[in-house]
């Protein structure tokens, strides 16, 4: 690992090598600062961002000092807001109860996270836990100390917040879907209190997620606010999209191929013009207080391949012979059996962690693991449950 003392984004000649990090063998090249890339005057850009991010660090210090007893709650909220829980909990639950909602959840989560990756590569957002050590905004004697936690050391750029964007997109989809379902059953009985209650719950969740990400020093306040806004925009766009419910396997394949190739192509293009998109990995390895808190599964490419695997697996599941042969049961017992079986099976499956000693193998296994999640939920579990119920009914006769 290269530890460089130069300014963010510029390759420094004064570097030292350290090899005790769990994430290795990823080359770092020269890069440009956001202001250089977008032709903003560097001094003006740096001054404005120093003020904004300085206020963000003050917010983190305030939360960590005055709400230290809520540390466990903040850590749990950050864990709960991870998109992994959408794929392993919300999707199997909703798909077996209302398939269209489950399908929309996957599309919102995957496309939202893909856009989040692209935005992060463009915006070059810093993170508080490393920025506070490198900025010239503070005099050395006045440099504030902020605590780090196991979920602090994210390895990608910070803006916009992926957790805030994902939570906003997923919960916005859930709220609008629930309201739509209820209004279709009782058009005249959706009262103001129900709408107010659901939207109050939505905003309560967003506030908790934003505060948790600021508390653990993973994000600045402006990054989580940007995440909430963009997440809601993605969800609203898919509220108006209908073709995803009848998309062919070819559509799933080409969409997955396009999203993957465009992200990789964009990465290579930026590298060709001198931008190193792995600059944040170096900072995470340098400033994280515990090397084991720097995880390969938080890198941008790990996120990309997980999401592409999930989308491709959804297409495989919806167009597999097992799914087409299985008639969806409206019986509550069958739906409950599918939900419980899916949740238990996916919980066991999630315990498998791909090895991280080789990046290529890790990415490949992450893609395959992610593709298996919707495939199992959509086709294998319903098929097995229906076969078991059919055998039980035959024995009863």
From TrEMBL:
Pfam assignment, any one: PAP2
Gene3D superfamilies in the cross-refs: Phosphatidic acid phosphatase type 2/haloperoxidase
Enzyme class: hydrolase
InterPro entries found in the cross-reference section: Glucose-6-phosphatase, PAP2/HPO, PAP2/HPO_sf
GO biological process: chemical homeostasis; gluconeogenesis; glucose 6-phosphate metabolic process
Record field: catalytic activity: D-glucose 6-phosphate + H2O = D-glucose + phosphate
MF term (GO), any: glucose-6-phosphatase activity
TM regions (residue ranges): 73-93, 164-184, 196-216, 222-239, 251-270, 361-385
Main location, first listed in the record: endoplasmic reticulum
Entry's EC annotation: 3.1.3.9
Coiled-coil annotated residue ranges, if any: none
Record-listed substrate binding positions: 127, 213
Function, as annotated: Hydrolyzes glucose-6-phosphate to glucose in the endoplasmic reticulum. Forms with the glucose-6-phosphate transporter (SLC37A4/G6PT) the complex responsible for glucose production in the terminal step of glycogenolysis and gluconeogenesis. Hence, it is the key enzyme in homeostatic regulation of blood glucose levels.
Family as reported in the entry's similarity comment: Belongs to the glucose-6-phosphatase family.
Protein name per its UniProtKB record: Glucose-6-phosphatase catalytic subunit 1
Organism name: Austrofundulus limnaeus (Annual killifish)
């Amino acid at each position: 690992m290269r530890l460089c003392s130069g300014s963010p984004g510029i390759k420094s000649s004064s570097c030292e090598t350290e090899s005790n990090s769990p994430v290795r063998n990823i080359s770092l090249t020269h890069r440009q600062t956001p202001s250089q890339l977008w032709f903003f005057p560097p001094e003006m850009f740096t001054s404005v961002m120093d003020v904004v991010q300085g206020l963000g660090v003050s917010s983190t210090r305030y939360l960590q000092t005055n709400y230290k007893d809520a540390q466990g709650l903040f850590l749990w909220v950050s864990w709960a807001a991870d998109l992994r829980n959408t794929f392993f909990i919300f999707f199997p639950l909703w798909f077996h109860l209302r398939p269209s909602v489950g399908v929309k959840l996957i599309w919102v989560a995957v496309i939202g996270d893909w856009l989040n990756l692209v935005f992060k590569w463009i915006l070059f957002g810093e993170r508080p836990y490393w920025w506070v050590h490198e900025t010239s905004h503070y005099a050395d004697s006045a440099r504030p100390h902020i605590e780090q936690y196991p979920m602090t050391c994210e390895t990608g750029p910070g803006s916009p917040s992926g957790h805030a964007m994902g939570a906003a997109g997923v919960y916005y989809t859930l709220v609008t879907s629930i309201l739509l379902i209820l209004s279709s059953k009782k058009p005249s009985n959706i009262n103001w209190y129900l709408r107010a209650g659901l939207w109050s719950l939505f905003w309560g969740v967003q506030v908790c997620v934003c505060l948790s990400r600021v508390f653990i020093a993973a994000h600045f306040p402006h990054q989580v606010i940007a995440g909430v806004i963009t997440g809601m925009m993605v969800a609203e766009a898919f509220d108006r999209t209908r073709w995803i419910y009848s998309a062919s396997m070819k559509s799933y394949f080409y969409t997955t191929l396009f999203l993957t190739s465009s992200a990789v192509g964009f990465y290579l293009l930026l590298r060709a013009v001198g931008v190193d998109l792995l600059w944040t990995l170096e900072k995470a390895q340098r400033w994280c207080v515990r090397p084991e808190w720097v995880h390969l599964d938080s890198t941008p490419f790990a996120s990309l391949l997980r999401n592409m695997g999930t989308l491709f697996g959804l297409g495989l599941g919806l167009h597999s012979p097992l799914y087409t042969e299985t008639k969806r049961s409206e019986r509550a017992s069958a739906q409950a059996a599918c939900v419980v079986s899916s949740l238990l099976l996916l919980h066991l499956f999630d315990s498998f962690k791909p090895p991280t000693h080789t990046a290529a193998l890790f990415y490949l296994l992450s893609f395959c693991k992610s593709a298996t999640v919707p495939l199992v939920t959509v086709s294998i579990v319903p098929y097995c449950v229906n076969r078991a119920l059919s055998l039980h009914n035959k024995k009863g006769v």
